[in-house]
Amino acid sequence: MAFDCNKARGVSLPDNHSSICTEGTIIQANPLSHYWKAKGWKSRDKLGNQKSSYGSIPRDSNTKKADEASGEATASTCGIRCFTDLPAALVCEVLARLDAKELGIVSCVSTLLHTLATDHQGWKKLYCERWGLPNLPATLNGPVVPGSPLDGKSWKTFFVEREFRSKSFMGKCNVDVLRGHNEDVRAVFLLASANLIFTGGRDSVVRMWNMEEGLLIDSSRPLGGTIRAIAADIRLLVTGGTNSYIQCWRAVDGNVHLFHISGNGTDQTSEFRLWGHEGPVTCLALDSLRIYSGSWDMTVRVWDRAHMECVQKLMHADWVWDLAPHGNTIASTAGRDAYVWDIRNSELTSLISNAHVGNVYSLARTHLANVLFTGGEDGAIRLFNVSDVSDDDEDSKPVATWVPHSGPVHSLAFEYPWLVSASSDGRIALIDSRKLLTPKKSSKGHFSVKSFDASAIEPPQRMLHGVGCDLFSIAIGADRIVCAGEDGAVRVWNFSEALEIERRAQALRSLRQENRMRRRKAQAEMNANGRRPDQCSIAMKKNQLKGDKSVT
């Protein structure tokens, strides 16, 4: 619980001091913080390693007097040195233990702490725990250097923008309908970093769409079976279906849209197939090193992307419906059960038996350790904490359960904090997981499932209606939700307008806050000078009203 130690002791500090005491730890603004700014100290590494950084600052007589006054005030109030006098390694460790809200509070204390908190690498940890590395514009020139500021922005800027964007899914949206498939669409994939949407279905044709404009860019020749799974990144596109093989396209250098899937180009080496499954391929996923595929032949296969060959085969007890990799593990669903495998040694690390009544059709994971979402034939969506699953449990208990659908949940997709689901009842459910997932206060900083009463689970925050047909696949990202089903239409729910409305509202709030601060400052100055504020206050209010009208 935060408190002001000076108020508690009845002591007032000089105007150039401010302090915040939180459970015995003091964060105090130092009057010499302007020195650091003038010298260009932009990083926490510039602080002294063992001694106070201020000991090496050249001081004149006035500065020494200010130091003595500051030291006396500090000693007389809290009796300890200020937070920034700690060794640099300790300051870094303290900042690394803070969450986003706490880092924001620290940055408001002083100019020096604002610089330290803004440039701290904790923002990178907070970002990557939720969303992984940022999706920058597609490029084939090589990977981005890990840990560096991306696209000219700081990690704090990336975090704030992404957190702001995640709020748009509760706002106004438009629905665009993409038509081109002749029969039901079984798979959609959204590659937001390249502004692309991929779709496939019973007509055995893979189509590539422009996400912003909704225009068809390219389409493949008929592949001879129902397309049931699609996955892609900026270097590789893979599809699978009832013909049991994996169709692959490599990205083409110089192609604005990355892939040439029609097969009419001069480079025929960009298209190839992977054989190995003995039944329909139902699910696909990619990471930087591997391709993952699941099939009704009751196996999950792991393929080496460098040599394009199968390196692992994971056997299941039933048809495989879905899979989701995470680091060195891969989760999969088969029959009524959910599995978690360690791909380093092909061992089964967790088995969730009887996860649903009926088949477990869908699965979702993200950059959250040990957290697993499943969707089943019973219309339920369940959250499991894999670390709590015991091998002796015949029926593992979920942490949370939602039943937003009256039909099977065919597809799940997750982008922090939103879990979205598509069902045969023609509806889409949006579930906010912020209250369920909380970061651990540890050096690892992983997320864990928050303990709470299961009866207190909130229903989905939003339901999207009006589709009127079975939905088979869904994807989320970049202010979009993409879904498709049995009517052959691909629907894109566009929430970018909600973002623009929120930006305008935020600008208006900032202007009003600025005007209030100006009025208070002018009022304080007039009171100090003993002048009558009536006429000036009226003029200030008129100017403020004019400013508000100009913004709107």
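The record above closes out task 2.4. Task 2.5 opens with a second protein, given below.
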Amino acid sequence: MAGKGEEEVYVASIDQGTTSTRFIIYDRHARPVVSHQLEFKQHYPEAGWVEHDPMEIMESVKICMAETLGKAAANGLNVDAGLKAIGITNQRETTVMWSKSTGRPLYNAIVWMDVRTSSICRRLESELSGGRTHFVETCGLPISTYFSALKLLWLMENVDAVKAAVQAGDALFGTIDTWLIWNLTGGIGGKDRDGKELLGQHVTDCSNASRTMLMNLKALDWDKTILEALGIPAGILPKIISNSEKIGVVASGFPLAGVSISGCLGDQHAAMLGQLCQKGEAKSTYGTGAFILLNTGEEVTQSSHGLLSTVAYKLGPDVPTNYALEGSIAIAGAAVQWLRDSLGIISSAAEIEGLAGSVQDSGGIYFVPAFNGLFAPWWRDDARGICIGITRFTNKGHIARAVLESMCFQVNDVLSSMHKDAGEAGEVKSAEGEFLLRVDGGATVNNLLMQIQADLLGSPVVRPADIETTALGAAYAAGLAAGVWTKEEIFAGLHKDNTTVFRPKLDDAHRKKRGDSWYKAVSRSFDLADLSL
């Protein structure tokens, strides 16, 4: 609460993730004061297919906002009067198509990890002169099932309602941020608090747009050449804006009607901002997947080692854009959920630390979680999950530890590629000459996971006091646009509480041997997609 005579000032974040939605309210010092989180249903209509119900996602946002406000009131916080802005951060690449006239989705949202577009990828690779990397120089991304453009093509080719709406000029495309903003700012027939009509804003921010495979990275606009090559009409696409500017106000019918939505970033870009990563600094977020980004400053850096060139953040319409190299890992925390929900080895995600800690090591077990293929730096959609090295000695503790190690090995693979692409000059090191990896995300509460990461990486791992830096980054962007904070205040460490540092304890020879064994395991996971039952 504010001090005596001090106005209560708050900034909020909508954090719409792959498995849950959260609403968090921060005070003027960027400290979280109240929040609510809600999981929602995952739909798996076929092997390799993953969908969400866009209406359920929208409802989860509404519920989280209302529940958080209820908790705030119970705690004596005057949020209604003091809330200056709302920021949005979201699961990226997940694709929604809806009707401009009805506001209803034309199909379920196709989730970022869905691989149904494999055949479209193969077709484009054979048709386009540059193959898989045909568009890389323009948009920074290879042709992959991961990106929104391929999901959009699948919808246009396979869903009659989408085909008809596109032909009639009634279709709107968006990633989750666009769907949320369009609805929150009025959608169809929306009104403000005074009853005046509001039109839903059809926009996306440059970080989310950079993950569609349709945006020119340098121009920060939809690339006409790519649109023509893929046959995607520009009229269905949202307007691209910066990460920190006033977008619109919340319409009546939602909690906090009239409050400005002033910031929007894809989840990994928001985490970069939440971690205050400037040029040469890297962060790794451990969630459903794991995502490692290195801020490369105001220049686009092209990777020759399997990484993606992407936007880091653009903190206002008229300020320079920061770019990043990114390595995306499809399955990290999702493997722990698999142990819990599909195998029943643990009954809650938190149990894995104790189970994995019950053994000294993984007992020669290597687990490669290529459930839907492998992303960076391998880009093998023909890979499938394997667990090798099993003997009669193997118990569930070894398997649990191998699952944790798989997250860390995958992060190492990406960081190794980053070191090669960025070079020594492209990374900021500590006063001791060490490369520091900033970490965040729900899985980082696991101390054993963080120690394994430091051991296998051979560098210190730094965990902030507030590990939910994704939501914090969205709050920073919104608060910046609303004048709550300046850029200088944010990067001076507005929210620099105590950090925990995990230092490597493994010797170099053992670290190299473990890494070599991991590479052998990864190679065994290739070319398994067509295994028949």
